[in-house]
Amino acid sequence: MTALNSRVVLEQAKGILAAHLSIEAGEAF
């Protein structure tokens, strides 16, 4: 159960990070 929860948190973190990167890339260009 713990591994599943940490994986979900990891996926959410990657999604948030990707969103921030895409926003920064969009503002940069």
From TrEMBL:
Cross-referenced InterPro entries: ANTAR (IPR005561), WH-like_DNA-bd_sf (IPR036388)
Pfam families xrefs: ANTAR
PROSITE patterns, alphabetized: ANTAR
GO molecular function: RNA binding
Domain of life, per lineage: Bacteria
Residue ranges annotated for the ANTAR domain, each copy included: 1-29
Protein name: ANTAR domain-containing protein
Organism whose genome encodes this protein: Amycolatopsis dendrobii
